[in-house]
C-alpha cells in the first residue's frame, strides 16, 4: 500500500523544495533575549504599578525620598533619645503600643475633636504623613502589652500596599496624651 501511494503522483504532489518552508526556529540566544525582554517588561509593569499605588497614596513618602518602605528608616531616627532632627524630635519609648495609620483617611479627622492645645513638637504621624492635607488620625491602632508581639503585627500589616504605618510607636495615649490630637495627627 505504501508503494502504491508513493508510486502514483497526483496533481497535488509537489516537490518539497517548491513548498514554502516554515521559518527556521530562532536560535537559542534570540529566544533567551526575548524571554529576558518579556521578564523585564513584566517587572517594569509591576514596579510602576506598585510605585504608582504607594506614591499617590502617601505623598509624604516622596519627600522622604523612598517608597512605601520608608518607614523602616524611621525607627533609627527616633530611637536616639536626644535626637534633634526637625522631622522626628520626639523621644522614642520602649515599645508596648503601636499606632498604625492607613492612608486615605478622609473621614477620620471629623470623628474626633481637635485639641485646642498647640503642638510643641511635630507628632510622629504628622512627620510620617508630611504631604499637604495628610494630617489625619489613624484608622487603626494597635494596642498591646510589652512583648505581646505588637511589633510583629505592625510589620505584617506594613507589608500591605494600602497600609501606611508609622515607623515608631508614638505612645500617644499613655505618654503624650496631654499634647493633644494636634500633636497626634
Ligand atoms: N507570632 C509570634 N509568635 C510568638 N512570639 C512572637 C510572635 N511575634 C513576635 N513574637 C515575640 O514577641 C516578642 C516581641 O513582642 P513586642 O513586639 O510586643 O515587643 S516590644 O514590647 O514591642 O519590644 C519577641 O519575643 P522575644 O524574642 O522574647 O523578645 C518576639 O519573638
UniProtKB/TrEMBL annotation:
InterPro entries reported for this sequence: NST/OST, P-loop_NTPase, Sulfotransferase_dom
Annotated segments matching region Disordered: 1-25, 79-125
SUPFAM superfamilies named in the record: P-loop containing nucleoside triphosphate hydrolases
A Pfam entry, by short name: Sulfotransfer_1
Gene3D superfamilies xrefs: P-loop containing nucleotide triphosphate hydrolases
Ranges where the Sulfotransferase domain occurs: 138-184
Entry's EC annotation: 2.8.2.-
Domain of life per record: Eukaryota
Assigned keywords, A-Z: Glycoprotein, Golgi apparatus, Transferase
Keyword Nuclease tagged: no
Entry's localization field: Golgi apparatus
Family annotation (PANTHER family): HEPARAN SULFATE GLUCOSAMINE 3-O-SULFOTRANSFERASE 3B1, HEPARAN SULFATE SULFOTRANSFERASE
Family (UniProt): Belongs to the sulfotransferase 1 family.
Stated name of the protein: Sulfotransferase
Amino acid at each position: 500500500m505504501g508503494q502504491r501511494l508513493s508510486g502514483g503522483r497526483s496533481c497535488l504532489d509537489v516537490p518539497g523544495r517548491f513548498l514554502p518552508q516554515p521559518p527556521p526556529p530562532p536560535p537559542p540566544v534570540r529566544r533567551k533575549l526575548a524571554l529576558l525582554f518579556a521578564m523585564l517588561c513584566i517587572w517594569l509593569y509591576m514596579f510602576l504599578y506598585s510605585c504608582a499605588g504607594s506614591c499617590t497614596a502617601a505623598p509624604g513618602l516622596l519627600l522622604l525620598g523612598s517608597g512605601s518602605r520608608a518607614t523602616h528608616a524611621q525607627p533609627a531616627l527616633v530611637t536616639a533619645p536626644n535626637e534633634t532632627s526637625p522631622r522626628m524630635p520626639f523621644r522614642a519609648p520602649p515599645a508596648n503600643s503601636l499606632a498604625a495609620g492607613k492612608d486615605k483617611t478622609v473621614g477620620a479627622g471629623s470623628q474626633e475633636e481637635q485639641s485646642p492645645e498647640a503642638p510643641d513638637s511635630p507628632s510622629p504621624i504628622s512627620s510620617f504623613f508630611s504631604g499637604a492635607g495628610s494630617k489625619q488620625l489613624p484608622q487603626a491602632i494597635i494596642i498591646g502589652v510589652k512583648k505581646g508581639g505588637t511589633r510583629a503585627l505592625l510589620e505584617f500589616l506594613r507589608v500591605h500596599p494600602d497600609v501606611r504605618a508609622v515607623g515608631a510607636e508614638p505612645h500617644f495615649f499613655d505618654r503624650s496624651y496631654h499634647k493633644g490630637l494636634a500633636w497626634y495627627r
